[in-house]
Design goal:
9 strands; 7-stranded mixed sheet; 16% strand; binds 3,4-dihydroxyphenylalanine; elongated; two-stranded antiparallel sheet
């Protein structure tokens, strides 16, 4: 059996129709097919309209059906008129003409009826749209949570605030003076190589170059310039270095700087404070140790380690193998610190003979990774909710 399309692509002669009875037959077939389609569409149209009423789509489900039958260019009626009527043999022309007119009237009446139905449905659907069901649960708008880095900042701030430190913040764009010179890092000092960073493009003749700070330490200087001892501050913030991204490096990361200066601060105060912080942060079962290190702005300088929180400082994983976090070393390097180098006091008009103090610079991303068992720093910056949701 030919489909409607196939039927209407051929002339009556090509279809082998040569007498009045066959003409009536073939027209009856078309009408039947229209009746069937319009009947099955009634439900579809209603569902579509209701769906659209709820979802607000712009399409009109009635259009495609209508144009299939009566579109001027390629509707079934046009095709029949072109293929069947115009080329009908003279003896059949009157009957084809009559049949065509009847079919046309039938189809138009059917479509008009459908249009009326849709109109009344539109009313029904707009009522549906306006209906408010008070028994439905309200719209849940998730309010989100702090990023893990922000949470760790908060933890660290809470610990230091509880022992008398206050929180200050400083600029992310710095001058070389604050970022380097005043921290006892003169222009050609080799440690600048480790702190290569981003310089701003400035107009010619600018008073000073500007750079994205490579550490939060410049705030030591800015704080001491502003206030006389005693000083007890921590400085949370973002810092920048020209590092290539990998599992432990990012060109932007976070630090908390610490500075305590007073008339009689000793090395014991220093190590005691750091130990207190580390134990508060990682829990009472960890131990701390320090090793000699070097920073131009502290003397002596140290590197603080914590006993590996993952293997309990044994270097051996629970499974019996080497602990993958500390690589069997039992200790994990935490951050740098030291007693403030007297040379630094010279830059801020503090009397190096009267005051002493300590400073430290904690890498927050590293602390968060250690405490929460995260092994790729990049996840902090990818904004993948599957990661973020793990730290509500
Ligand atoms: N500013 C150093 C860095 O980013 C970290 C640091 C080390 C800060 C020792 C300090 C300190 O305050 O005393 O590598």
């Amino acid at each position: 059996m030919l489909t409607l399309r196939e039927l209407t692509e051929k002339t009556l002669t090509e279809l082998g129709i040569r007498d009045a009875l066959s003409v009536e037959d073939v027209f009856a077939k078309v009408r039947e097919s229209f009746d069937k389609q319009i009947a099955t569409r009634a439900d579809d149209v209603r569902n579509l309209m209701l769906r659209e009423a709820w979802l607000g789509s712009e399409t009109n489900p009635a259009t495609s059906f209508r144009s299939f039958w009566v579109s001027r260019e390629s509707g079934v009626l046009t095709l029949i008129s072109e293929k069947w009527l115009k080329s009908a043999p003279p003896n059949l022309k009157p009957i084809v003409g009559r049949q065509f007119n009847q079919l046309k009237a039938h189809i138009e009446a059917g479509l008009e009826q459908q249009r009326k139905k849709i109109e009344s449905l539109t009313e029904e659907t707009s009522l549906a749209k306006d209906r408010i069901d008070l028994s439905l649960p309200g719209v849940h708008r998730p309010i989100g949570s702090h990023h893990l880095i922000r949470q760790v900042f908060q933890e660290i701030e809470d610990i230091f605030v509880s022992i008398g430190f206050s929180v200050v913040e400083g600029p992310e764009i710095e001058t070389p003076y604050y970022n380097f010179e005043a921290l006892n890092i003169p222009e050609f000092h080799p440690v600048r190589d480790d702190m290569d960073t981003f310089y701003l493009e400035l107009p010619k003749g600018a008073a000073t170059p500007l750079l994205l700070r490579t550490h939060t330490s410049p705030m030591q200087i800015r704080t001491m310039e502003k206030q006389k001892p005693p000083v007890r501050v921590i400085v949370p913030g973002k810092v920048y270095r020209r590092d290539n991204p990998d599992a432990t490096h990012s060109f932007m990361f976070h630090q908390v700087e610490g500075l305590a200066v007073d008339t009689d601060i000793t090395f014991c105060d220093f190590t005691g404070t750091i130990e207190y912080f580390v134990i508060q942060f990682f829990g009472p079962s960890v131990k701390t140790r320090f090793r000699p290190s070097y920073f131009p702005f502290t003397e002596p300088s140290v590197e603080f380690d914590v006993s590996c929180p993952f293997c309990g400082g044994t270097g051996t994983a629970a499974s019996g193998g080497t602990c993958s976090k500390c690589k069997g070393a039992a200790w994990i390097e935490l951050f740098g610190a030291g007693m403030v180098d007297p040379a630094v006091y010279g830059f801020v008009n503090y009397d190096a003979k009267k005051v002493s103090g300590f400073a430290f610079g904690i890498g927050i991303d590293r602390m968060a990774m250690l405490k929460y068992g995260i092994d790729d720093i990049q996840v902090f910056f990818q904004n993948d909710v599957r990661f973020l949701r793990q730290f509500p």
